[in-house]
Description:
This protein has 21 helices and 24 strands. It starts with 6 loop residues before the first helix and ends with a strand. With 717 residues, it is an alpha/beta fold. It is globular and about 75 Å long. Helix 4 runs parallel beside helix 5 and helix 9 packs across helix 10. The chain folds into three domains: 314 residues, TIM Barrel (Alpha-Beta Barrel); 199 residues, Rossmann fold; 126 residues, Sandwich (Immunoglobulin-like), CATH 2.60.40.
Amino acid sequence: MELVRNKEKNAELRERAKKLVAQMTLEEKAFQMVHGAPAIERLGIKAYNWWNEALHGVARAGTATVFPQAVSLAATFDEDFIEEVADAISTEGRAKFNAQQKYDDLDIYKGLTFWSPNINIFRDPRWGRGHETFGEDPYLTSRLGVRFVEGLQGHDENYMKAAACAKHFAVHSGPEDLRHEFNAQVSRQDLYETYLPAFKACVQEAKVEAVMGAYNRTNGEPCCGSETLLKEILRGEWGFEGHVVSDCWAIRDFHHGHGVTSSDQESVSLAVNNGCDLNCGTLFVYVKDAVEKGLIPEERVDEALVNLFTTRMKLGLFDGEGRTPYDGIPYTVVDSKEMQALNLRAAEKCIVLLKNEGGILPLDKSKIRTLGIIGPNADNRKALIGNYEGTASRYFTVAEGIQEYVGDDVRVLVSEGCHLYKESISNLSKGMDRDSEVKAVCEASDVVIMCLGLDSGLEGEEGDQGNQYASGDKPNLNLPGRQQEILQIACESGKPVVLVLLSGSALAVNWADEHVPAILQGWYPGAQGGRAIARVLFGEKNPEGRMPVTFYRTLEELPEFTDYSMKDRTYRYMKKEALYPFGYGLSYTDFTYTDIKVSSDAVEEDGITVSAVLTNTGNREGVETVQVYVKAEREGTPNAQLKGICKAALKPGESREVAVKLPVLAFALYDEQAVNRVGAGSYSVFIGGTQPDKRSEALTGKKALAATVTAKKEIVL
């Protein structure tokens, strides 16, 4: 079924929008191009605020389900589930919108145009906003981005449920404190190989309604006024038909930060002429002046307005109450029991088991009398949610989740242990002011759960309230403050220690990897996060998450933060061994792959299918994340790259054939001129539960199955 975004329906709505725009004065047009668009009562146009957020739940507008942060959701490697979550988000978005409209609340964060998802590539672990993304891999980001957009926008043939926005276009991933003046220099090869694929997929496959430009320049052009990005690539090469919005107050950076223009009018003209339709900010009120001075053709302004009003019409905002299938969604769906149950599933699915020496996990509640929970993230709500968040009706921290789970059967002792990043908790203390408590809790406990890591006060966006580091970026990959010291105290106690890390990015926990028997990466797991972590710790839920980013051993192995070349970055190009590799994650059961098959040993235009028999050889039910990687076996090509994923739930002893279709695109690489081609020669195809690198093999004791296929001739795509 073709959706609302089909050509005939779009053409009909655009004609309707053109007739509306034709009745506006130039001044009215200009004011409709800012995010807080005023009413035009004589034309029956209500005021509309375009600015809304839904990164992992409806944000900044009161109560909503707070799902795990985006990078957490990426750890599920589950396309179907990502769409289910996004559909739930847009259901809540419509419910809240319906209530807001009823009571004439037209404020910011009250519209149906959600500026999500963030599909930038998390190329450097220092970037504070990396936890807003789906990780470091273009393929995974593309697949999850497409399904998130489809979940938000819906599948009705007449109306969009909500409008999604792919951001920040393009080549954007820090440093945060330089973003208003920074020029990201990138080769055409890296641009097309790494930074653009997810945007292209969201535009061409998911028909994303909006694209937001980035703050920075890319190769000298400010992204929100880039002829290359907005006109040549987005509209020209990809055929994008939606609207383009600037990042917030990014247009003023053209003259204040980047110095490529010298006035408000020049900056506005550069943006509008190159395809920016909507200004998050207020500078586009100068559009009227710019048109009158001959800097912008009024036809281009009309085109921008048609783009914008077409979006509003797709959402049903000009058709009267009761016309869309979403107008009847009641407010009571918001943060309902059903939403909370979905949220708990999401939190469970995103947890990654990094280490489980001697099978210490899952814990047996019947064998524990006293349990110690120690660390600054033991009872830290901020470590559940990440940024761009809503407000849950109830939160479950790790301590609360475990306390609820064990009930009165187990005595639970809780200690903050140390401040998240300062040297002491009390400003009046001499320091180390909880060390004695840590020792006492460890001494009294049968098992110790250490809850360490970061929160969104340490990593986030420039200007986020409370960021303690470099405008939200991380200075290093270490556990902050005294966390490492209290971890060592716990280990020295001789009691079994389980480390639960809450963070939205890589931490170099090398000491823990050597000395702590069990480690869980919990990310920012959402309002239900503590309950999910408890269920995984005690074995009610078998962990299935996989790493959407690489955990490096040191920063020294990485290029400069400001270097946008992909050389030595991410699993695709790194030469050194990871601490925890992309795609890695353990289970409480065991999965074995046998009998790899490829549908053809020749790579041709219709691609190939790779399959294997997957068997659960352990004694627990579990979900395996099947991963398929492709390596071009010639000089100068990336490491094996993820090109296919699927999820498989198997009972103990159960076997099933799993098959993944690889299109010809999976074998293609861009050259230095950005020509995408399948080179003649041999390719290795791998199928397994991890990527086919030595570190993953060492951590799991397993090798991905491999087959060789050949492209007999070059195929240019």
